[in-house]
Structure formats: C-alpha cells, structure tokens
Amino acid sequence: MTLCLVLAASYGLASLLLSILVAAGWAAGLSRMHSTSTGFLVLRMLPAAGAALLTLTVVLPAFVIYEPARELEAAGPLLVALALLALIIVAAGIVRGWRACAAARALLRIFGAGERRLLGNGQKVDLVEAMEPIVAVVGGWRPRIVAAKRVFAECSQEEFRLVIAH
Description:
Strand order of the largest sheet: 1-2-4-3
Number of strands: 4
Low-confidence stretches: none
Distance between the termini: 49 Å
Number of domains: 2
Structural class: alpha+beta
Radius of gyration: 23 Å
C-alpha cells in the first residue's frame, strides 16, 4: 500500500513540476522553437512521460532497495494528497482521450467515406461535402486527412498541396 502511494505521489509531483517547467519554457519562447506537430506532441507528453520515467527508474528502485520490508508506516497527508493528484491527472487524461476518440468517430460518421484523392506526393485525402471550409486530420490509430470539396475546388493544386503539408 505504501509503495503504491509513494509511486503515485512521486508521479503526481514530478508531473506537476514538469508541467510548470513546460509552461515557463513556453512563456519564455519555447513555442517558436517547437512549431511542428511533433514538437507540440513532445511538449504535451513531456510531463506525463517524464514523470513516469522518473518514477519507474528512480523512485521505484530506491524504494525497493532502501525501504525496510515488513515495516508498517502511516502515510502522511502530503503523500496522500500527491497520490490523489496523480489519480486526478491520470483520470483527466483518460477522459480527454476518450472524448477525443468519440469526437473523431462522430466526425467520421458525419463526413462518411468521402471521395478519396491521391495527390502528386502520394498523400491520400478524403474529399467530403461540408458547409465549412475544413481541412483536418481525423483519427489517432488510423489517421485520415479530410478536406471539404469546397476547399479543393477553390485552391490551386500547389495551394492545396501546401495546405495538406501544413
């Protein structure tokens, strides 16, 4: 029980500190250095991945090696509060992921299959009937590029290629 609380508390604290560090870096101009989608994903995942890495590679081995076995100790309020923080962080991530998946499924249902086009660079694009001039990547496991036929009709081939590349 104590091990679970210690791991959860260290994850919560590390995640909180790394989130503050990313936010401070963003305010200091990190946004200009990481303006690609991969850069944004790295910044978004850094607190969770960094906290998990620190917890599993530093805290867990240290606890197993140095904590006396079979000795019961009461967990303090700070440890319990940090463990609850970690549970809230994980639960919020699961809820956000579930909502994103549900929104992507709903969007794909609304758009339907669409007309598949193959661009000159080998990129596949689904052209769909939509009132809004939308171009989006939909899906996480099997992402698809969805574009309104209206956007395709209004752009030159070079402009549309640049839109898709963006």
